[in-house]
Amino acid sequence: MLSLGSGGAKSTKPSFVSYVTPEEIKAEKDPPKKEKHPDLLPGEVEFCSANPILKYSQDDLSQHGVFGTLFCTNFRVTFISDETPQEKTAKTFKNKLYGEKNDIPLMCVDHIYGVYDEKRKLITGGLVKNKYPSKMIIHCKDLRVFQFCLTFTKEEDAKKIFQGIAHHCLEEKSLKCVFAFSYMGTPSPGTDLSFCREMLRKQETIMFDSPEDWTQEMKRTKANCRLVIENKNFELSQRLPKYFVIPLAIGDLFSYQGKGLPIWCWSHYSGCALFKASFPPVTQEDGDFQKHLETMINAVAHNYLYSVKTEDLSESLPNIQDIQQSYNKFKQFFLIENSTDFWLSDVKWFSSLESSGWLDIIRQCLQKAVEVVECLEKDNTNVLITEEEGTDLCCVISSLAQIMLDPYYRTLMGFQSLVQKEWVAGCHAFLDRCNHLHQKDKECHSPVFLLFLECVWQLVQQHSPAFQFSETYLTVLSDSVHVPIFSTFLFNSAHHREGVMKAESPLAQSGPLSCPTVWDWSVQFDSKAQNFFYNPLYSEKVKHEKAVRKPHKPKHQRQLSLPSTAFKTPLKKGFFKDETDSLKKMLQVKRLSRWMGSPDSPAATTREFYESWQHRPVDYHGLLLPCLDGPAVRVWMQRYLRWIPEVYILGGGSVAMTTKLMELLSQVQDLKRVLEQRDTSQAAKIDHRPYIQHRLLSFGSSGRLSSSFPFAYTRNRSFKPIIPTGLMQRLMVTDSLASQEDEASSVASFV
Amino acid sequence: MEKSGSVDSVESLCSSTTTRSDRSSGTRVSDTELRSKGRAIEKVLQCKYTSKGELPLLPEELVQDSAKDVTYICPFVGPVRGSLTVTNYRLFFRCTDREPVFGLDLPLGVLSRVEKIGAATSRGDVSYGLACKDMRNLRFVHKEPEDSLKKSVFEVLMKFAFPVSNNMSLFAFEYKQVFPENGWRVYDPLAEYKRQGLPKESWRISKVNDHYELCDSYPAALVVPVTITDEELRRISSFRAKGRIPVLSWIHPESQAAVVRASQPMVGQNGRRCKEDEKLLQAIMDANAQSHKIFIFDARPSVNAAANKMKGGGYESEDAYQNAELVFLDIHNIHVMRESQRKLKEVVYPNIEDSHWLSNLESTHWLEHIKLILAGALRIADKVESGKTSVVVHCSDGWDRTPQLTSLALIMLDSHYRTIRGFQILLEKEWLSFGHRFQQRVGHGDKNHTDADRSPIFLQFIDCVWQMTRQFPAAFEFNEYFLITILDQLYSCLFGTFLCNSEQQRLKEEVPKHTVSLWSFVNSQLEEFVNPLYVHYPSHVLFPTVGIRHLQLWVTYYIRWNPRMRPQEPVHQRYKELLAKRAELQKRVEELQREAANRTASSSSERAGSPTRSITPVQTFV
Question: What ranges does the record list as Polar residues composition bias (chain B) (predicted)?
Answer without folding.
Answer: 1-14, 599-622
